[in-house]
Amino acid sequence: MRLAVVLLALLPLAACGEERTSDAANGATRAYFDRSERDDVLSGGVKMIPISTPHGTFKVWTKRVGNNPRAKVLLLHGGPAATHEYFEAFDSYFPAAGIEYYYYDQLGSAFSDQPDNDALWDLPRFVDEVEEVRAALHLDRNNFYLLGHSWGGLLAIEYALAHQDHLKALVVSNMMASIPAYNEYARRVLMPAMDQRVLAEVQKLEAAKQYGNPRYMELLIPHFYSQHILRMPPDQWPDPVNRAFKHVNEKIYLQMQGPSELGASGKLVNWDRTADLAKIAVPTLTIGAKYDTMDPAHMEKMAGLVKKGRYLNCPNGSHLAMYDDQKTYFDGLIRFISDVDEDRFQ
Questions:
Q1: For residue 37, is it within any domain?
Q2: Does residue 5 carry a pLDDT above 80?
Q3: Which of 48, 161, 299, 326 is the most buried (most CB within 10 A)?
């Protein structure tokens, strides 16, 4: 049963019949896009939410799409300090499934405030920020699905461990539960598969901290990113991906992740929540992909460590599997949301 059926239930149906069913479907579409009872009608779903921090109050950007009282998905982008933009592929799938969803740029990212204060780029503060956003958007355990991709998946795990009483379900997309394990996978599997002359030059540039040298990305994009980040020729990468990469706040990214996706070396280098996954009791979907920077076997294991887990494998995908294995990704994701919503999840 598609989640759009939830919307149909909100509409009065006089009788059955093909013509009336069509009218009902049109009514469901109108209800899904109706903003008349929402406080964001003036801005087309956009809200700038104030975030309190020990270093002042700042605003973060969010945008709602659709209406569904039972299924509301907050999207946590990667990076750290990328943007919501690469999630725009969700526009092709979630509305048809009747899922309400929220774009959100975390503090420091392009659509939100970008304060120049290194003390703000701290994992517990980001968790507090997500909780403030949740409260401002009136999401609760009856409807709140949290989806985090990459760094956003790490943040989603941390949020669930701190606040799962507010969650209906959790999705961890393309993120392992351990940065040391991620780095080991890069050293053991990904780096040996690269052209070793290219790898040596990349590592030489990293040792010299020449991350801004154009040669650095000239090497990484064709020899690593187009193999493990998005498996398409770089000149064919979708516009939302290109915009998100263009808008990354490099200062925050470097501090927390390190210079590239070829492993992590920033503040997060020792992060490991593998032993704590058993504390997560809400329905949880982990998503991995064969060609990902993240070990798909580890992500499958994660689904077995949480109390109520399911694993979705994208056999043709990489780190951005929502693009290079799109049908698998969205079919599995929507099925999970629908199964939780209809109490079918096992």
A1: no
A2: no
A3: 299
